[in-house]
Amino acid sequence: MSNIRKICFVTGTRAEYGLLSLLMRKISDEPTLELQVIATGMHLSPEFGLTYTEIEQDGFKIDRKIESLLSADTSTSISKSVGLGIISFADAYHELSPDIIVLLGDRFEILSAATAALFAKIPIAHIHGGETTSGAYDEAIRHSITKMSWWHYVAAGDYEKRVIQLGENPKRVFNVGGLGVDNISKIKLLDKQELMAETGLKFGKKNLLITYHPVTLENNTSKYHVQNMLDALNAFEDIYLIFTMPNADSDGRVIIKMLEDYVQTHQNRSILFTSLGQIKYLSTLQYVDAVVGNSSSGLTEVPTFKIATINIGDRQDGRIKAHSVIDCEPTEKDISEAINRLYSIEFTNSLVKVTNPYGKGQASEKIFNSLKTFTIPTTQKKEFHDL
Question: What are phi and psi of 174, to 5 degrees?
Answer without folding.
Answer: -130, 125
